[in-house]
Design a protein that fits this description.
Largest interface: B-C, 97 and 98 residues
Structural class of chain C: mainly alpha
Number of strands of chain C: 0
CATH class of the largest domain in chain C: Mainly Alpha
Helix content of chain B: over 70%
Radius of gyration of chain B: 24 Å
Strand content of chain C: under 5%
CATH superfamily of chain B: MetI-like
Distance between the termini of chain B: 41 Å
Shape of chain B: globular
CATH architecture of the largest domain in chain C: Orthogonal Bundle
Distance between the termini of chain C: 27 Å
Number of domains of chain C: 2
CATH topology of the largest domain in chain C: MetI-like fold
Oligomer: heterotrimer
Strand order of the largest sheet of chain B: 1-2
Chain lengths: 351, 293, 275
């Protein structure tokens, strides 16, 4: 099974540069997720790999063969679209068989393959139905079936779950992950949803404005973000940022509250990043700040409290019953070792 | 060979439009160029002289009373028929928006006049308006209580009303259909919101309904205005432009000049004038539609 | 609103709607009625509102005199030109939609061809046809109708093709289809309804044409519209022939209105309104 190499890919739309020189190695069998806000170039990159967009510069190599310049059908890839792209005038069976017929497979092979895929996705009973008779989740399965039925070098997913409701999405996410383990093929998956990215990926590539912001294993990006953007993008609710000034081992918040810090950085002004789960409600803690509670959002096991602290709003994830009063000043303890400091100019993480 | 051509996106796209462009050039552009050339010449079908005579034909346009009368007649007819069709079509559309038994069947029947040939429409109304055997005079006689024999397609004062009746009969359903479709698409929630806000009927119409149906109304009026401006078939069947030149429209005059009087070069000048005027109007109008989309 | 909707108001509306329908339908009824009247009934005074029996003599006369060939001529010219215009126009529309061929200019230029009054180009075309010996031939009329309907087909199919999700085509290309195969196996089936509706309206436009047929036919390829106007004479007018021939000319329209409900709005509005 071939590896994929992207070498300095650039894509221009007129004066607008959507992809600004991306190089990436995708070893065979990897589950790679391209994630980023809308307009970051992730879909353009995926569509360039598929051949649906011509790239302006760079080379795409698949198994040692340069494929940019080839028509999509010559690249031996399979793709699942956000809208599923099912043919309404064909049955589920014929939809799945479409790619095999296009490649002139023998009827017996087609039948075997279609049933194998249908079995795998649990849609055998739907084979004779038309797409319009199916629910959203079932259509999604058919779309995936149509991709996996072919023995492609590369499987591309373009936000395949964004048209499903939340509950179905959770189920399908798990199923796609299981499918990858079962097939052992290279998956490249595009999403704007950081939870999807975290849960699915073996490796996440976070894109921003046509460039790679950071690439790595999900937890690596979460725990060791290169910069403020990555730190803020991953995690829900997102990381809180407070502008602080550091001087001789003390960190001063805008409202004058102080904490001692071990961070090995020069004195000066920084953004201090604290994830919601790194706050706790503990009156006896050492690193404690006073904040006033404004809103409580219980989710069941945990509650999210929105606090007013040092001129800004911060969200803390606390134990479900810890918060019952609003408008009250509360002592919040912070796990200093897990917080991060970012340069106010460049956004780079410094400590 | 063909296979590789079809495979290449760049050649494929041009290969697809090529036949269409060829046909339109042949039947659209060739006559157009021919027209321009002819309009500067002096061509007659009877002798073989083809001499260049510059702008003489265009100069003649300016002083041709029969031409200007036909243009005024055509524009007047358009100006009278179009609002009538629009208003009647709108009223019908409003009526049919409500719940009515057998609605689909009734609409189908009402639409029939619009898609039949104008020739048949003209013939039908000649039957209807025949002074002796036609039902229209019969009904008028019955209403008036005395024997009435109006010479609809012959008498100079009645020909225009006769043509107008046929025209309105044939094209009101067209307006009705488009406005009905447009009105059906007006956002129900906006209307309900207006109701809750206590908007008057007139305000609802001005602020919600009219803006919503405006694009469709614009297209409908444009299509009909262009058709009316070149009206030929209906008038030809009903009166052939007569009596005298009483119902001679622009298209009929152009036809008479070209095929009855064989004034080839002069009729080319007329045609070129008409095409020029229409092109300006149509391009401007289409631009507006494209922009508003 | 809904409370008052029942009963009296409903019937009042129905009565008005029915009256209007009768108003629009009556002339067509009259046309059909005359075609089935006996010669005595046609020229009866006062007119006969309901013919006593179906009398086919008007139609028989058309057959006996060979006038029905005009209907056949209309059928052949309109039919073949529809097939050609559909083919050429649809391909052009696909290229314009998917490859933006010619940008906005090409599609505006194509549709503007339809706005040109036929009478304006009639004479140059007549001269062209004289020199090519195409006057009074099937080929001549078919070519003309094809050319004049290509803008309509292109414009309409452009709209229908735009409605096809592009992902369907992209997915097919990834699955291994060539451009040409995508056109045949994805675009055509997806646009089936639009193709059918556009073909029907294209046929109607050719079928209803009068000016070109008037100018370009003499004796061989006379269409039904030319034939109908020919029956009006200064001395005598052949009412029964006019009505019978007209009825034959209207027959296809009955079929259209009955089957094309869904597409009729879009068809007559040149795609400006999606029906």
């Amino acid at each position: 099974m071939p590896d994929l190499h992207l070498d300095n890919i650039i894509k221009n739309y007129g004066d607008n540069q959507a992809v600004k020189g991306i190089s990436l190695e995708v070893p065979a069998g990897e589950f790679l997720v391209l994630v980023g806000a809308s307009g970051c170039g992730k879909s353009t990159l995926l569509r360039s790999i598929a051949g649906l967009e011509d790239i302006s510069q760079g080379t795409i190599t698949l198994g040692g063969r340069a494929i940019n310049g080839l028509a999509p059908r010559e690249r031996n890839i399979a793709m699942v679209f956000q809208s599923y792209a099912l043919y309404p005038y064909l049955s589920v069976y014929e939809n799945i068989a479409f790619g095999l017929r296009a490649r002139k497979f023998a009827e017996a092979d087609i039948d075997r393959q279609v049933h194998w895929a249908a079995e795998l996705l649990d849609i055998t009973r739907l084979l004779q139905n038309k797409p319009r008779e199916l629910s959203g989740g079932e259509r999604q399965r058919v779309a995936i079936g149509r991709a996996i039925v072919r023995d492609a070098d590369l499987y591309l997913f373009d936000e395949p779950l964004s048209n499903l409701d939340a509950k179905l999405r959770d189920g399908m996410r798990e199923e796609i992950k299981r499918l990858h383990e079962r097939l052992g093929k290279t998956f490249i998956y595009v999403t704007h949803d950081q939870i999807e990215a975290m849960t699915l990926a073996e490796r996440i590539v976070l894109l921003r404005d046509g460039r790679i912001e950071q690439a790595g294993a999900p937890l690596e990006l979460f725990e060791q973000p290169n910069n403020q953007y990555v730190a803020g993008f991953l995690g829900s609710p997102p990381m809180n940022f407070i502008e602080v000034s550091l001087a001789s081992g003390y960190m001063t918040l805008p409202d004058g509250q102080q904490l001692s810090t071990q961070a090995a950085v020069a004195d000066g002004s920084y953004y201090w990043g604290v994830r919601p789960e790194h706050w706790s409600h503990d009156d006896n803690g050492s690193d404690t700040l006073q904040a006033s509670l404004e809103v409580v959002q219980p989710t069941g096991s945990r509650s999210y409290g929105t606090f007013y602290l040092a001129g800004t709003h911060v969200i803390a994830e606390l134990e479900a019953h810890a918060l019952q009063w609003s408008g009250k000043r509360i002592a919040l303890t912070v796990d200093m070792a897990s917080t991060a400091l970012f340069d106010t100019q460049s956004g780079e993480r410094v400590g | 060979m063909l296979k590789t051509l079809l495979d290449n996106d760049r050649t494929f796209r041009y290969l697809l439009v090529a036949p269409a462009v060829f046909f339109i050039l042949l039947i659209g552009l060739y006559p157009f160029i021919k027209l321009i050339i002819a309009s500067f010449q002096n061509i007659s079908l009877f002798d073989d002289i083809r001499s260049f005579q510059g702008l003489l034909n265009y100069e003649r346009l300016l002083f041709d009373d029969r031409l200007w009368h036909s243009i005024v007649r055509t524009l007047l007819f358009t100006a009278v028929a179009l609002p009538i069709e629009l208003v009647l079509g709108y009223l019908l559309a409003v009526l049919f928006l409500e719940k009515i038994p057998f609605k689909a069947a009734l609409i189908s029947i009402i639409l029939l006049p619009t898609i039949i040939s104008p020739i048949v429409a003209g013939a039908t109304w000649r039957l209807m308006l025949d002074q002796r055997f036609g039902p229209v005079n019969q009904i008028i006689s019955w209403l008036a209580g005395t024997d009435v024999k109006l010479l609809w397609t012959v008498s100079a004062s009645l020909v225009w009303p006769a043509i107008l009746i046929a025209e309105v009969w044939q094209w009101t359903p067209f307006m009705f259909l488009l406005l009905y479709a447009a009105l059906s698409n007006v956002d129900r929630e906006q209307l309900e919101a207006a109701q809750i806000d206590g908007a008057s009927w007139w305000m609802t119409f001005r602020r919600i309904v009219l803006p919503a149906i405006m694009p469709v109304m614009f297209i409908a009026v444009l299509i009909r205005a262009l058709d009316l401006f070149r009206v030929f078939d209906l008038v030809w069947t009903m009166t052939q432009g007569g009596p005298g030149t009483a119902t001679e429209t622009l298209s009929i005059y152009a036809y008479q000049m070209a095929f009855r009087e064989f004034e080839i070069s002069y009729s080319a000048a007329i045609a070129f004038l008409v095409i020029f005027l229409l092109t300006v109007v149509v391009v401007a109008a289409l631009r507006r539609v494209e922009v508003s989309r | 609103m809904n409370k008052r909707d029942s009963g009296l108001r409903l019937w009042l509306r129905f009565t008005i709607a029915l009256f209007v329908t009768v108003l629009f339908a009556f002339p067509v009824y009259w046309l059909v009625a005359i075609s089935f009247k006996s010669p005595e009934e046609v020229y009866a005074y006062p007119p006969v509102w309901f013919p006593q029996q179906f009398n086919f003599s008007s139609y028989l006369t058309l057959f006996r005199d060979g006038d029905v060939w005009a209907v056949w001529n209309s059928l052949v010219t309109a039919g073949i030109s529809t097939v050609l215009a559909m083919l050429v126009g649809t391909l052009a529309a696909y290229s314009i939609v998917r490859f933006r061929t010619g940008g906005d200019h090409l599609s505006i230029w194509i549709i503007s061809q339809r706005m040109i009054p036929p009478i304006c180009v009639a004479f140059p075309i007549f001269l062209l046809y004289v020199s090519w010996n195409l006057v009074d031939t099937y080929v001549g009329l078919i070519m003309l109708y094809t050319a004049f309907n290509i803008p309509y087909v292109t414009w309409m199919m452009r709209g229908y093709i735009q409605d096809i999700p592009i992902e369907l085509e992209q997915s097919a290309m990834i699955d291994g289809l060539t451009r040409w195969q995508v056109l045949r196996k994805v675009v055509m089936p997806m646009a089936r309804g639009g193709l059918f509706a556009t073909a029907v309206f294209t046929f109607i436009f050719a079928w209803n044409d009068f000016i070109f047929a008037l100018i370009l036919s003499k004796s061989e390829v006379v269409t039904y519209t030319v034939k109908v106007t020919g029956y009006f004479g200064s001395q005598s007018t052949f009412w029964s022939k006019i009505s019978a021939m007209s009825v034959l000319g209207v027959l296809p329209m009955f079929v259209v209105v009955a089957t094309m409900q869904k597409f009729i709005v879009r068809g007559v509005s040149m795609g400006a309104v999606k029906g």
